[in-house]
Every structure is written in structure tokens, then in C-alpha cells.
Amino acid sequence: MRFMTCCLAAAMFLVVPFQSALAEIQIPSSATVTADDATLKELEVFYEEIEKALAAEDIDKLMHFYAEDYLHQGITKRQLRFMWLEIFNTYQKLYSIHAFSRIHVNGPDGILGCSGALLGVKKAGEEYITVDRWLDTNHWVTKVNGEWKMVGGASHKGTTFKKSDNTHPLF
């Protein structure tokens, strides 16, 4: 499993210079998926809408995708907004790559095991660089009033909590 995750991460970083401004969402055939096709489509649209907000540097639209009670290792939604504003002030042409190795949805809640990266060009630069990256990290989501929202995750306890979760509050 670790070898497969490393191969996915390496493949993602090799294709970075050739990507467009759209999110790259990958669900390899080896992924463990506990969700129906309609839910998978909803999650794909969710990440594409996040990508549109990134491309437009629309902080209000971007923050719409986070639950009001968002919490990730002590980072609140208000603090996360500030982090995104700092990213928008430093980078342009932002986009993300997400390779999901696990998708487990139970009712309105989901855990998405993901390796990926947020990429962008420094305001005074010309080449894409990695703004953030994560390897086999859980993205925690929940449905609120019919819409998927990110809720944080590394502060959650339970059987799905992994000690390897790092602080990657953006997704």
C-alpha cells in the first residue's frame, strides 16, 4: 500500500508542469470506495467548484466549502480564511491535484484518504511550485443542507484517526 501511495505521489509531481487550471481528481482502480456513483459524482463536483474558487481567488466562494464549525488541529474556519488570504497574496494560478486511495461515505459523513498537492506560481515568478502537499491524509467532509463541506479532521478521534495525519488544513 505504501509503495502504491508513493508511486501515485511521484506520478502527480511528474505531470505538474503540463496541468491546466482545472483540478486533477484521480480515483485509481485500487482505491477502496464505500460510496455510490451519485455520491462520487457529487464529491467530484465539490472539488471542481473548489478549484473554480481557487482560480478566481474568490475567498468568499472558497470559504463556502468549509463547515461553520470547521476545526483541524486547533485551526478554525476564521484562521483558515486568513491562511488562504496569505496564499492568494503570495501565489497566482493556483490549482490542486487529489489522488484518492480511500473514499468512505456513511450517510452525510465522509472520509477521503488522499495524496495530493496545491500548486501555484509566485506573484513575481513564472514557474509552478508546490504550495502545499500531503500524502495519505484524511479529508473529512459532511453534508450540510444538501451540500458537501470540509470539516477539518485531525482533531477528530475514533477508529479512523491515523497518527500519520499531518497538519494540512486547506483540504
Q: Tally of extended strands?
A: 8
Overall geometry:
globular
Cα separation of the termini: 22 Å
Radius of gyration: 15 Å
Q: What summary fits the major beta sheet? A: 8 strands, mixed
SSE string = HEEHHEEHEEEE
Helix content: 25-40%
Q: How many H/I helical runs?
A: 4
Assign the structural class, choosing from mainly alpha, mainly beta, alpha/beta, alpha+beta, or little secondary structure: alpha/beta
Uncertain residue ranges: 3-21, 155-165
**Beta fraction:** 35-45%
Q: pLDDT average, as an integer?
A: 83
Task: Please describe what this structure looks like.
The chain is of the alpha/beta class and 171 residues long. Helices cover 31% and strands 40% of the residues. It contains 4 helices and 8 strands, in the order αββααββαββββ. It has helices at residues 2-15, 37-56, 59-63, 77-90, and strands spanning 24-26, 32-34, 66-72, 75-76, 91-106, 109-122, 128-144, 147-152. Strands 1, 2, 3, 4, 5, 6, 7 and 8 form an 8-stranded mixed sheet that branches. A hairpin with a 2-residue loop joins β3 and β4. The radius of gyration is 15 Å and the shape is globular.
Features:
171 residues, alpha/beta, eight-stranded mixed β-sheet, 4 helices, 8 strands, disordered N terminus
Give a concise summary:
The chain has 171 residues and is α/β, with parallel strands linked by helices. The chain has four helices and eight strands. It is globular, with a radius of gyration of 15 Å.
